[in-house]
Design a protein that fits this description.
Blueprint: E1 9-14, H1 18-28, E2 34-40, H2 43-53, E3 57-61, H3 69-77, E4 85-90, H4 95-104, E5 108-111, H5 116-127, E6 132-133, H6 135-146, H7 163-173, H8 178-185, H9 189-203, H10 208-217
Parallel strand pairs: 1-2, 1-3, 3-4, 4-5, 5-6
Helix pairs in contact: 2-3, 3-4, 7-9, 7-10, 8-9
């Protein structure tokens, strides 16, 4: 939430394509709870404005002049006292971009072809501390993570999960939303949120995106 105590979410847009940037801003401006506080055309300006304005969410294009979106993500998240969440956007469905975005600490990796309503939903999810990857990218990454070497020995911290928490972790790793997990396990969404929070805490993970990466890196899930 913004620092003045208002209920709206503040958003910074960074993209060197003015047409896309203005189009996304126009979509944001139709929403009563979202305010675009700045538009910039390069990564260095994004870092500077994020530090000055402290927006709730920064939406960064991968390919920008002066500093690319992934390096800008790292710089923004490393700023002292940072509370800004970062969504990385790209027209290029590249595994390398996804891996770099995850390592940089982004809260989401989305394709620019995403429908406007889903883009708005992603901004809200990120602001709440959630994380997400475009579903088509997630499913391909699942196969890539699982196609390599034999799975390593299960990490000791996984033994601290209850059987239900482990179920939830596996469903999260397979790109299930909280609503889908609730339906699958026949429990309420608030119960699912509690389980997810406990899984993240027990495994020392920051968010759902990193839970996905953790599960596949340690061979807990295979396609």
């Amino acid at each position: 939430m913004n620092d003045d105590g208002g209920a709206g979410l503040t958003v910074l847009l960074a993209d060197d394509h003015a047409l896309f940037r203005s189009g996304l801003r126009a979509v944001l401006d139709t929403q009563a709870d979202l305010t675009c506080v700045a538009e910039v055309a390069d990564g260095r300006a994004a870092v500077s404005e994020a530090g000055r304005l402290r927006p709730d969410v920064a939406v960064l294009d991968v390919r920008m002049p002066r500093l690319d979106g992934l390096a800008a993500t790292e710089a923004i998240l490393a700023q002292p006292g940072n509370r800004t969440k970062v969504l990385v956007l790209t027209t290029y469905d590249s595994d390398d971009y996804v891996y770099r975005a995850l390592r940089a600490g982004a809260s989401g990796f989305l394709l620019k072809s995403l429908p406007p309503e889903e883009m708005l939903s992603a901004v809200r999810v990120a602001a709440r501390g959630g994380a997400l990857i475009d579903p088509s990218v997630t499913r391909r990454l699942v196969a890539r993570f699982a196609a390599g070497i034999e799975p390593p020995e299960e990490p000791p911290e996984v033994s601290r999960l209850t059987s239900r928490e482990r179920e939830v972790l596996l469903l999260v790793a397979n790109a299930f939303s909280n609503a889908e997990i609730a339906a699958e396990l026949r429990v309420g969404e608030e119960t699912v949120k509690t389980h997810v929070s406990r899984v993240l805490a027990k495994l020392g993970l920051r968010d759902r995106v990193h839970a996905v990466a953790y599960a596949y890196r340690h061979g807990l899930v295979r396609p």
